Amino acid sequence: MANQGTLVVALTQRGRLLPSTYELLTCGRAIADAAKEPLAAVVLGAKASQFAPDLIARGAEKVFVVEHPALENFNDELHAKAVGGVVAKEGLARVLVPGSVAGKSLAARLSVALKAGLAADASQVHLNSSGLKAERGQYSGNIVSEVEFRSPVQIATVSPMAYPRAEAQAGRTGQTVAVPFEPGPARIEFVSYQPEESSEVDLTAAERIVSGGRGLGTAEGFKLIREFAQSIGAAVGASRAVVDSGWIAYRHQVGLTGKSVRPKLYVACGISGQIQHLAGMSSSGTIVAINTDAACPMMEIASISVVGDLNELIPLIVAEIKKRKGAPAAA
Ligand SMILES: Cc1cc2nc3c(=O)[nH]c(=O)nc-3n(C[C@H](O)[C@H](O)[C@H](O)COP(=O)(O)OP(=O)(O)OC[C@H]3O[C@@H](n4cnc5c(N)ncnc54)[C@H](O)[C@@H]3O)c2cc1C
Questions:
Q1: Rounded CA gap, 283 and 260, in Å?
Q2: Of residues 28, 174, 34, 33, the one with CA closest to residue 94
Q3: Are 224 and 319 in contact (CB under 8 A)?
Q4: Considering the chain, what percentage of its residues have pLDDT values greater than 70?
Q5: What pLDDT does residue 330 have?
Q6: Rg of the chain on CA atoms, in Å
Q7: Per-residue pLDDT reduced to its tens digit, 195-219
Q8: Within its chain, how far is the Cα of 162 from the centroid?
């Protein structure tokens, strides 16, 4: 019998379900609906079963739970073995994997083990009359290639933020299946986990982001951006130009070779809006551009365009925010 069914791979880290899982559930739900098949998810971890109700509430009809202490920390070999076992046993056709570093490593191993076609970094994955298709941005996002599959099993890693997160729906029901797992020997060993030390709001989880670009003039300009961000509880983002100049750390970079973000509010200060930057933030809710150049690409996609010198405008905006919040404005 031909392989059928779509599987979302739900990865856990430090006892938490990765939020990218919810984005995969949105993508998987659309594919499963188009195929008129149920949507399945597989969740892996030391205490993975606790996540099954959430996965069902957000769109999965069936959740395979692979629970084992050996899966507490990501291990390419063991995770690939566990997911591959489920795909092979259930005869599944389509596998959606988070486009994170761990997810891409897992997908590559799965692809080899299952002799499955793999589309990495897909921005869209959909099903049409000729089968599964994945869209991938290439050449710095200047072209979009469409990938078709010829293998019975088809795998795609889906870029972060490519899809909105599936919301939990009350009253949804589904089936949970415990999958026995025997890790066996592995050539990869988890050594330790070193969390990033930062008190700043995480960029990928932020609902508001204030980003700075070369228009700041110098690294000192980020003082303004930080003050602005702090005044509205936002994370600090940046263009690659300023990261490459050493004005701010790479973890703040938004764009093709940085992070993909989808906040409700994105404020771009002194960022021209080259395609590689837009690739990481153009799905944001409201985009505010502050720029001296009224004709730059960022102004074209912005919901609100503010033409002017950021050095003059940002202190005025921050002072107004503080005034409205009732805090004393800086002299
Ligand atoms: C393979 C590849 C990958 C890339 N990946 C990324 C990526 O992930 N992210 C990314 O951002 N870029 C990326 N880039 C670089 C990208 O092409 C641009 O060079 C970069 O985004 C430009 O950054 P910027 O907008 O800060 O600088 P600029 O393009 O120099 O723009 C500065 C802007 O500031 C404005 N300005 C100047 N002074 C003021 C002022 N006083 N007040 C207000 N506005 C002012 C100017 O009008 C201008 O619009 C990539 C490029 C390549 C080739």
A1: 9
A2: 28
A3: no
A4: 97
A5: 54
A6: 22
A7: 776 667 778 889 999 999 999 999 9
A8: 7
For 163-193, the pLDDT digits (tens) are 999 999 999 999 999 999 999 988 999 999 8
Per the CB < 8 A criterion, the answer to whether 140 and 276 are in contact is: yes
Give CATH 3.40.50.1220 domain extents, the chain. Answer: 208-325
Q: How far apart are CA 219 and CA 272, in angstroms?
A: 17
Q: Could you tell me where in the chain the CATH 3.40.50.620 domains are found? A: 6-178
Categorize the per-residue pLDDT at 194 as very low, low, confident or very high, splitting at 50, 70 and 90.
confident
CATH architecture of the domain with range 6-178: 3-Layer(aba) Sandwich (3.40)
CATH 3.40.50.300 for the 208-325 domain, yes or no: no
The amino acid at residue 248 is I
Strands 39-45 and 265-269: unpaired
Residue 113 to residue 162: CA distance in whole angstroms: 27
Say how many Å lie between the CA of residue 253 and the centre of ligand 1.
Answer: 11
**For a pocket test of ligand 1, which of 277, 284, 296, 298 has the largest count of ligand atoms closer than 8 A to its C-beta?**
277
Give the burial class of 246: count Cβ atoms within 10 A of its Cβ; 0-12 exposed, 13-18 middle, 19 or more buried. Answer: exposed
Residue from 248, 260, 274, 282 to probe ligand 1 pocket by mutation (most atoms less than 8 Å from CB): 274
Q: What is the pLDDT of residues 23-77, one digit of tens each?
A: 999 999 999 999 999 999 999 999 999 999 999 999 999 999 999 999 999 999 9
- HEC-encoded secondary structure of 45-104: ECCHHHHHHHHHHCCCCEEEEEECHHHCCCCHHHHHHHHHHHHHHHCCCEEEEECCHHHH
The model carries a pTM of: 0.79
Query: Ligand 1 pocket, 214 CB below 6 A?
Result: yes
**Residues 153/87, Cβ–Cβ less than 8 Å:** yes
DSSP state string for 180-243: -------S------------SPPTTT-SEEEEE-GGG-SGGGHHHHHHHHHHTT-EEEE-HHHH
Which residue do the tokens 């905006």 mark? 317
